Structures are given as structure tokens and as C-alpha cells.
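thread: overnight batch results

M.L. [08:02]
morning all. the overnight job finished for the chain we discussed friday. pasting input first so we're all looking at the same thing
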Amino acid sequence: MRQRSVVTRLLGLVVTVLLAQLLVPSTASATPDPVCQPIDQSVTVLLTQHHMRGTLCTPAGATKVLVMVPGGTYNHAYWDFPYQEGTYNFRKAMNAAGYATAVVDRLGSGDSSRPPSILVTALMQAQAVHKVIQTLRGSFAKVVLIGHSIGSAISVLEAGTHRDVDGVVLTGMTHQPNLVNLATALTEIHPAMLDPQLSGGGYDPTYLTSKPGKRGVLFHDPGVVDPGMLAVDEQTKDVLSALETADSLGVGIIPPYSALINAPVLLAVGSSDKLFCGTGATNCTSATTVLNTESAYYTHAPNVSAYVATGVGHDLNLHPSAPQLQQAVLTWLSTHV
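M.L. [08:03]
and the structure it wrote out:
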């Protein structure tokens, strides 16, 4: 009798545990995935129609959207990185915090249209991003523009021209680039039509990409590099146009536009970014040293903040410390937007 009683109690305990697992929702079901849908924004380039494409992902109840513009030779994969997503996927980190995200491909790259490269300028890219922002305005209370490198320059042009965003996050860009290292970096770029990986894409001669195996040297050194990340970075590389490079990073163009931005600004750089920091360039030792020079360029912004990733190169979001960048952006958003 005693043995039967013990068995009965054990069976009862098992049934109770199983019922509890069925009735109590799991963590995954308590935080459902955002609803993602394609972006297909029509834009006119010299009387011809083209399309800036991307993906809008909206968590339940989101009222603020972050529009993300990747850098040169990158596409949407920079922000929506398909490797160790808990570390490198910026888009998913923002969605998990309740923000909607609109990750776009610059014209000529990714899923967007490919106009003749001679027509693809940073100013034209900024106009296309502006159209995306205007479309999103009907669905969200706040719009924040986030760029990386050339995508940051495009963001400056858009925000300074149209003054239609509630915040601007600029990563991997300052107003005092390292001209010596930039000139060296240009030797590691070549026409996409000559690239073994991209040669079948039908690119015209002035669509450019990184030479095979050079992304570590260009965008990650001298920081710590995850070999798996670097392999995926090479696999997902894309293009930029020669004119886009010239007018986005031209020191004569960007400063007048940054002075017109009328929204809070967050600047984020790696302390070891060879393209924008170092001797003769911006002092990226700390947030204070960055603000000492950069804040003067944003005279109409109500607030300018800075985040410096210590020991990190140009691609902040593809460094193992990327979650710290993501948290810095989230903290800034909660305070300023």
C-alpha cells in the first residue's frame, strides 16, 4: 500500500509539472517577434524611376522607428548581421527593446535599384532616405536616423536638408578624417566588375567594392576580430559609387549640412578607427575629446553626445563589444528621443 501511495504521489507531481509547463507561457511567447514587411520606396533619378528597398520590422506597440543607413560596400546586412545575432545584430537588439526598425539598402546596393553609378551621389541617396522617412511619418510618432560611415554622411545630408527627424545617430564618421589612412584605404578598393565575387552582377565601371580579403584591413584593424564574423563580412560585401564616396566624405560639403541639423545627435566612434581618428585627425581617445572638436559642427542641435568604443576600429557594430554600442544607443534614445 505504501509503495502504491508513493507511485500515486509521483504521478501526481509529474502531471502537475506538465500542466504548469502547458499553462505558463514561455519567455519566447511572452515577447513575440516583430512583424517584418518589405520597404519599396519609389524615387526619381534624372527623370528615371528607381527604388530604395529595405525591411521594416515593428514590435507590438512600437511608436518610434529607427531608420538605418549602411556604409559604403555594405548593405542591410551591416545592421541585420546574419552571424552570432546576439552580439552583432543591431536591428534585433533595437526590436527587442521595443523600437521599430527600417533598415534600407542604399541605391545601387543590396535589394535597391541600381542606377548608372555616375548618377549615384550622397545627395541623391539622402533624398531617397527622405522619402522613406516621410512615408514612415504616417505610422510612427518619432523617427530617428542612424547611419554608419558613408551612411552617416548621407544621414547628415538628409537631416540637415529636410530637418524632419527627431534624433540622429552617426557612427564611424567625424569631420576631421585621417586623410593619409583614407588615401591608403582607397588602394584596397577596386571596380566591382573586376571582383571575383561580384563580377557577375552587371556593375558598371565606377561601382566599387573592397578587394578580396581586405575587409579586415579596411574596416576592423587594429581591433579584435572574430574570424567567423570576418568571413560573413566578406560574403555579404556590396558596392558604393565613386561619386557617392566623393561627395559624402568631402569636407567641403558635410559641415554646412551638419550645422543645420535641429535634432539631438549621438556620435559613436571606435577609439582606433584608422579612417577618422589618429594623428592629424579627430582625437578619439574619449567622448570628451570627440566632443571638443565635433560639437562645433552641430550648432543648431539641441544636444550633442558622444560614445567611444575603446580599442575598436571603424566597424563598431561588427566588433565583439557591439552590445555595448547597442546599449549606449538605447540609453541615449531613452533620454533624448
